[in-house]
């Protein structure tokens, strides 16, 4: 797998696609209309997205709770209820970035701590290959991990990733390419 760039991309797509299916996520699901519907339909998916970005379930739950709080505060300002999903996704990505920045600052004063905080259930559902991919994702720089997670777990287009991360479409594309190359090196060792 180490010398095959397409193989790495297939592994990432397969792993994050498997997680997406386990979550019951679908791009064709009907869009919710009320804040309560959005909460019921999107909460767990947003938590899993945050877990893939911050690698800590309790922190991920906090990030998502803050995103929903922000959505509630800005509900009347949304152009329509369908924009809420994009708002939440962007809020989760930005909240995850803030958590990682705070973590980096805290670690400057404390010894680094590598915590594998994934739930036992989620790890049990993954094959050894899938676990290797998820572990390798955790070694990528933040931006590369975000782009791959949003692409393969979030099943988003380059334009949607660009909107959620504040990057240009070209940067999203080049970042994904560099991330897949980095994963190839990590998994080839």
TrEMBL record:
SUPFAM superfamilies: Sigma2 domain of RNA polymerase sigma factors (SSF88946), Sigma3 and sigma4 domains of RNA polymerase sigma factors (SSF88659). It holds the Pfam family Sigma70_r4_2. Residues 43-104 form the RNA polymerase sigma-70 region domain. The keyword Cytoplasm does not apply. Gene3D superfamilies: 1.10.1740.10, Winged helix-like DNA-binding domain superfamily/Winged helix DNA-binding domain. Keywords: DNA-binding, Sigma factor, Transcription, Transcription regulation. Residues 131-183 form the RNA polymerase sigma factor 70 region 4 type domain. InterPro entries: RNA_pol_sigma-70-like (IPR039425), RNA_pol_sigma-70_dom (IPR014284), RNA_pol_sigma-E_actinobac (IPR014325), RNA_pol_sigma70_r2 (IPR007627), RNA_pol_sigma70_r4_t2 (IPR013249), RNA_pol_sigma_r2 (IPR013325), RNA_pol_sigma_r3/r4-like (IPR013324), WH-like_DNA-bd_sf (IPR036388). PANTHER family: ECF RNA POLYMERASE SIGMA FACTOR SIGM, RNA POLYMERASE ECF-TYPE SIGMA FACTO. Belongs to the sigma-70 factor family. ECF subfamily. This is SigE family RNA polymerase sigma factor.
């Amino acid at each position: 797998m180490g010398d095959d760039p397409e193989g790495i991309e297939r592994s990432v797509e397969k792993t994050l696609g498997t997680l997406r299916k386990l979550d019951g996520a679908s791009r064709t699901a009907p869009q919710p209309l009320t804040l309560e519907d959005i909460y019921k339909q999107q909460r767990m998916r947003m938590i899993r997205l945050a877990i893939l970005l911050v690698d800590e379930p309790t922190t991920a739950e906090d990030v998502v709770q803050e995103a929903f709080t922000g959505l509630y505060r800005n509900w009347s300002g949304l152009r329509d209820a369908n924009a809420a999903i994009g708002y939440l996704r962007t809020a989760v990505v930005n909240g995850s970035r803030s958590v990682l920045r705070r973590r980096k600052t805290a670690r400057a004063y404390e010894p680094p701590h590598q915590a594998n905080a994934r739930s036992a259930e989620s790890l049990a559902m993954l094959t050894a290959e899938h676990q290797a991919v998820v572990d390798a994702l955790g070694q990528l720089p933040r931006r590369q991990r975000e782009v791959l997670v949003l692409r393969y777990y979030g099943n988003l287009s380059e334009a949607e990733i660009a909107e959620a991360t504040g990057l240009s479409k070209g940067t999203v594309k080049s970042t994904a390419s560099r991330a897949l190359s980095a994963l190839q090196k990590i998994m080839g060792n």
